[in-house]
Each structure stands twice: as structure tokens, then as C-alpha cells.
Specification:
By secondary structure, the chain is an alpha/beta fold. The protein is about 20% helix and about 50% strand. The chain has one domain (about 1-130): Roll (Nuclear Transport Factor 2, Chain: A), CATH 3.10.450. The chain starts with a helix and ends with a strand.
């Protein structure tokens, strides 16, 4: 499951989100996201908008990853994130879940959801993975 976590974290990075080839490799053709805002996005929206995303000083802190195998080729990851603006402000605490599907040799994200949550204490990024 470490590979899925690596890919999840890669999607938090500006250089990944703006690279069309990487987006197509990491996101399933049927990708759907329900974002922190409650808005829904599909792969075509991501391919139209993400390559134009402006860089930001905000870094996404992620922690408490858990892998929930749903079958041999489907895994749901759950974890928490918070935005760090680099000067001590921690905001946008979010519980997240992603469904990853094995397509041939690739693991691709089929679904992602971010739900606002109460603030939580930050721990080290990705320090441990647990599986159900």
C-alpha cells in the first residue's frame, strides 16, 4: 500500500497536478471527486483546469493513512490533511478518502472525497500505514 500512499501524496504536489501525462497516469478515466467545498469534479474538468493552477506557498500535511482493501484490485485509502501556509497557520483540516483501482500494471484513483473536520494535532507525514 506504500505505492498508493506515494501516489496520493504526489497528487498533493503542484508539479504533479499541473502535468497532464502524470494526471492521466494517476487518475482513472472514470475519476470523480467531491471536494472540500462540496463541488464535484471529473477527469475532464481536472485536465482542463489543473494544468493552469498557479503555484502556492501552501503545503498539504497528510497523516493517519489507513488502507482498506475492498478486493484484490480495489483499495480505499483514508487519511487526514491540513494546509500549512509556511508561517505557522494551519487551516482546512479535512478527512479524505480515495478509491484506487488496479488497471493493468497501474493503480489509478477512481474516486476522491474531502470532508471538512475539526482541527486535529499534526503528526509526522505518512509515518505509519495500517490495513484493515
Amino acid at each position: 500500500m506504500d505505492k498508493l500512499i506515494e501516489q496520493e501524496i504526489a497528487l498533493h504536489q503542484h508539479h504533479t497536478r499541473t502535468d497532464v501525462a502524470t494526471i492521466k497516469r494517476l487518475l482513472d478515466p472514470q475519476f470523480l471527486e467531491v471536494g472540500h467545498s462540496g463541488k464535484t469534479f471529473d477527469l475532464s474538468w481536472v485536465l482542463r483546469h489543473q494544468p493552469n493552477e498557479k503555484p502556492s506557498e501552501v503545503q498539504i500535511h497528510s497523516q493517519d493513512y489507513q488502507a482498506h482493501p475492498l478486493s484484490d484490485t480495489v483499495v480505499m485509502l483514508t487519511y487526514k490533511t491540513a494546509w500549512n501556509d509556511g508561517i505557522g497557520n494551519i487551516t482546512r483540516h479535512t478527512k479524505r478518502s480515495s478509491i484506487w483501482v488496479r488497471n493493468g500494471e497501474l493503480w489509478q484513483m477512481r474516486y476522491h472525497q474531502g470532508t471538512p473536520c475539526e482541527p486535529f494535532a499534526l503528526t509526522r507525514n505518512c509515518s505509519a500505514v495500517t490495513e484493515d
